[in-house]
Design a protein that fits this description.
This protein is of the alpha+beta class. About 35% of the residues lie in helices and about 20% in strands. It is built from 16 helices and 18 strands.
């Protein structure tokens, strides 16, 4: 059996769906092939089967500045039901002694919070914010929406202006070097590096020092999707179908078909051949695309070796703990900071910048570091994600994938570590002891099982109670 389309997209995560919708709007007949039973990839929201009505976002939740993305307007996602929420107190880092370092959508309030820790750092924040606002608006934002230039051509263009030269100078630093050079207070340093770490950048890597300045200057803040992250996936699916696209679920690619040095189609695991007149695009990872789905003799040796050398971020794996609650977490620090009752992202366990070196060492050794975690209570801002007068909450922690040398160890360590996370959370929010109605935890291994890196791996979801 053979069918033909203008374009085939491998993977129906958000990147694949966005590409497919654009190709459809350009008049192409498209199909996306997705091995899972649902489209959306990490835009996943599940209902707790033991307590109906409690919704949990098991992968993507904090959606940075989605409403500012060109595709959000181009694909008319609000017409298809998407609504993004951007809470004013966007992030709060609560220290062990009950202080709160706060990032607001209002930069003035953020500077005031920094000043409570360090007047010098508050002035530094203001300076970098004011200097980088035009750099973000006039250079980096347009650049992000344009095809990338060759590095030397980009450098030559930026070198023509003082602002461009400033960007190049700051970019040469690592995020760690930038923060150590510009800020003095250990908690402020920790907070800034933590946000940059969330962007999946190695804090020690030169070439990314400007990310901190961009973070300070950017109007982009964390958002959440009303109804759960899966609501954004459903809107993207609707945009694809409006443009005439087809999404085929439970379909696993076996190989990319190449003829005359050109990708011309996909053979599925069931033996079906799907041909593409113009485009075969992959939103899968480099190992899947270049090593698993392409015959070895079809790829130049250099490209194959580059794919083999590709490494994922050491600090990327996540451990997650999800709670069903009778009331939201009530943090003890709210006694002095009542605004914390409406904080969106909450960070716990990160009082000092030195914690980052500890976290990196533990990840390299495959051991579990002292807990630094962040999360939210989505139902403070969207009551639809739990039954009436009930709440959900979660915390994430970056932990090594191969714990003690083997990822399978997570199956026996899951419950123990969930209890350790809950202990820290309860120390900051004592009401959780009586408010908890149910819980489950997901390890880095569970995430891989659900969103597998290897096309041949089976998928399943593991959950546990505290």
């Amino acid at each position: 059996m053979t069918s033909t389309y203008d374009a085939i997209i491998l993977g129906a995560g958000h990147n694949g769906l966005i590409l497919q919708a654009y190709l459809g709007k350009a008049g192409m007949k498209t199909i996306a092939l997705e091995r899972r039973a649902v489209a959306g990839g990490g835009l996943s929201t599940i209902e707790d089967s033991r307590l109906p009505g409690f919704l949990h976002n098991t992968h993507a939740f904090f959606l940075r500045a989605i409403t500012a993305m060109p595709w959000y307007a181009d694909l008319a996602l609000e017409r298809n039901g998407t609504q993004l929420i951007e809470p004013e107190l966007n992030v709060a880092l609560i220290t062990g002694d009950g202080r709160a370092l706060e990032w607001w959508t209002d930069i003035g309030k953020t500077i005031d919070s920094f000043a409570a820790f360090s007047l010098r750092d508050a002035a530094t924040l203001r300076r970098w914010h004011d200097e980088f606002v035009p750099i973000v608006a006039q250079m980096l934002a347009p650049e992000a929406r344009s095809p990338p230039l060759p590095p030397e051509e980009r450098r030559a263009l930026l070198s023509r202006t003082s602002a461009g030269r400033r960007l190049l100078t700051v970019s040469a630093l690592s995020p760690l070097e930038f923060v150590e050079q510009e800020f003095e207070h250990p908690t402020i340093k920790a907070g800034l590096l933590f946000f940059n770490g969330l962007r999946e950048v190695d804090l020690r890597l030169p070439g990314f020092g400007h990310h901190i300045a961009v973070l300070l200057a950017s109007p982009a803040k964390a958002q959440m999707a009303r109804g759960g992250s899966a609501a954004l996936a459903r809107a993207l699916e609707a945009a694809v179908r409006e443009a005439g696209g087809e999404i085929r679920l439970n379909t696993e690619p076996e190989r990319i078909v190449v003829e005359g040095g050109r990708a011309v189609g996909i053979e599925t695991r069931d033996g079906e051949l799907i041909r593409a007149k113009h485009v075969v695009a992959s939103s899968l990872n480099p190992h899947q695309t270049f090593l698993d789905l392409l015959d070895e003799d079809l790829l130049p040796r250099e490209m194959r070796e580059r794919a083999q050398r590709f490494r994922y971020n050491l600090l990327a794996p996540l451990f997650a703990m999800h709670l069903n609650l009778s009331e939201p977490p009530r943090y003890s620090a709210s006694a002095d900071h009542p605004e914390l009752a409406r904080a969106f992202m909450v960070i716990l366990g990160l009082d000092h910048v030195d914690r980052f070196a500890d976290i990196v060492r533990h990840h390299e050794a495959g051991t579990i570091p002292p807990t630094v975690m962040w999360g939210a209570c989505p139902t403070l801002f969207d009551a639809s994600q739990a039954p009436a007068r009930r709440h959900t909450a979660f915390m994430w922690e970056k932990l090594p994938y191969r714990v003690h040398g083997d990822a399978e160890n997570w199956d026996r360590l899951r419950d123990e570590h969930a209890r350790a996370m809950f202990k820290l959370w309860q120390a900051h929010a004592p009401n959780l002891a009586d408010a908890i109605l149910g819980s489950f935890a997901r390890t880095p291994l569970d995430t891989e099982r659900d969103l597998p890196n290897k096309p041949s791996r089976r998928q399943h979801h593991r959950a546990s109670r505290l």
